Amino acid sequence: MAELNKLHDAIIEGDAKTAASVTEQALAEGADPQLLVADYMIKAMDEVGRRFECGESFVPELLISARAMKAALALVRPVLAQRGAKPVGRVVIGTVKGDLHDIGKNLVSYMLEGGGFEVTDLGVDVAPERFVDAVRDKKADIVGLSALLTTTMPSMKNVVEALKSEGLREAVKVIIGGAPVTGQYARDIGADAYCETAVAAVSTARKLVG
Ligand code: B1M
């Protein structure tokens, strides 16, 4: 049996090779991919964040941990995607302008795919007009916005405003998330929902598409 605590520790230590091999073994043994993400990967990144915040580690450590997390996520993604059958809705998702954090956004994207949504991921540093164009082109039911910096949160409001001025606001639901974001902020900017976690994003998206 794969030793899942090794996955947690490998992400903290930035050991991408071990993170990937433990994930691969666990999946081959039939481990639940959502459990791997929620109980080991996210918890490891929480610890990475805590160490950074209290000055025990610095940006290079963050980067190698992020790389290890991505290596493990890349293996989980196709397994989650296989779970979805007929798309239950279309989602356009991205990290807002000025913001390069993509781990949380990727998790949300993969979980939504696993939950049966067709997801178009625009990546990071996405300008409001790119969200608007993608919503129109993909005929999206939901647009998902992620922000990890207090300085980039206002870009979420800019997306809502851009959707309004292009006459698309009534056609699409807006969900937002990311560590500094709150339910109050969602209400303030006129988004439809705030989701604290990737798992919550799936249940919220399902409710929003009825
Ligand atoms: Co940055 N960073 N970072 N960083 N980084 C934070 C966010 C910070 C809180 C650290 C700190 O100082 N305490 C701080 C922000 C402070 C603030 O604004 N209040 C910060 C800073 C300051 C910066 C830089 C400015 C640092 C610098 O250069 N001096 C810089 C900014 C770059 C930029 O974006 N322009 C920067 C850079 C980086 C790295 C590149 C080194 C790296 C990112 C690597 C990458 O993403 N590819 C990084 C990291 C790793 C972090 C921390 C440590 C971890 C973020 C993370 O991946 N968490 C973070 C500290 C922290 O959060 N404790 C920090 C794990 C992830 C699973 O959680 O993203 O919260 P999270 O996603 C969750 C939920 O929030 C939710 O679901 C996810 C899973 O359940 N969620 C959604 C997220 N999006 C959602 C969307 C939804 C729904 C739910 O619907 C659409």
What key phrases describe this protein's structure?
Rossmann fold, alpha/beta, 2 domains, binds CO-5-methoxybenzimidazolylcobamide, 58% helix, Methyltransferase, Methionine Synthase (B12-binding Domains), Chain A, domain 1, five-stranded parallel β-sheet, 210 residues, 9 helices
Describe the structure.
This protein has 9 helices and 5 strands, in the order H-H-H-H-E-H-E-H-E-H-E-H-E-H. The chain is α/β, with parallel strands linked by helices and 210 residues long. The protein has 2 domains: 79 residues, Orthogonal Bundle (Methyltransferase, Methionine Synthase (B12-binding Domains), Chain A, domain 1); 119 residues, 3-Layer(aba) Sandwich (Rossmann fold). The protein has a 5-stranded parallel beta sheet with strand order 2-1-3-4-5, sandwiched between helices. Helix 4 runs parallel beside helix 5. It binds CO-5-methoxybenzimidazolylcobamide.
Concise summary:
The chain folds into two domains: 5-83, Methionine synthase domain (Methyltransferase, Methionine Synthase (B12-binding Domains), Chain A, domain 1, Orthogonal Bundle), CATH 1.10.1240; 90-208, Rossmann fold, CATH 3.40.50.280. The chain contains nine helices and five strands.
Q: In percent, how much strand structure appears in the residues?
A: 5-15%
Radius of gyration: 17 Å
Tally of contiguous helical segments: 9
Instruction: Note the main sheet.
Output: 5 strands, parallel
The H-level CATH homologous superfamily of the largest domain, spelled out, is: Cobalamin-binding domain
Shape: globular
Neighbour order of strands in the largest sheet = 2-1-3-4-5
Specify the helix fraction band: 55-70%
Query: Can you tell me the CATH architecture of the largest domain?
Result: 3-Layer(aba) Sandwich
Oligomer: single chain
Broad CATH class of the largest domain:
Alpha Beta
How many beta-strand segments?
Answer: 5
Stated plainly, the CATH topology of the largest domain is called Rossmann fold
